[in-house]
Design a protein that fits this description.
8 strands; mainly beta; 91 residues
């Protein structure tokens, strides 16, 4: 059996949208939204998304394929993932 070339490996797209004042970044690198809000990662792997609120803001909620009460969430890339992060004023 020959190894699969990198170009032939299956990739899974991840799309992130942000509302409010903050940033979402991924580990491994690829997403830094706003800005780079879409990236593809090797399928059937895990990535972690981190919400980074701007000063005076807080993460209100994750939605879509990412649900977590924390500032980070883990995604298993078995298909395309669509995630929203909402930030609001920290009262």
């Amino acid at each position: 059996m020959q190894p699969v070339a990198a170009e032939e490996r299956q990739m899974a797209p991840v799309s992130v949208s942000v509302s409010g004042l903050g940033t979402v970044v991924s580990e491994p690198a690829g997403i830094s939204c706003p800005g780079a809000c879409e990236a593809s990662f090797p399928a059937f792997t895990n990535i972690k998304l981190y919400a980074k609120p701007d000063k005076g803001q807080r993460l209100l909620a994750w939605s879509g394929d990412c649900y977590s009460p924390e500032k980070s969430c883990r995604l298993y890339l078995d298909s395309e993932k669509i995630v929203q992060a909402a930030f609001t004023v920290n009262l």
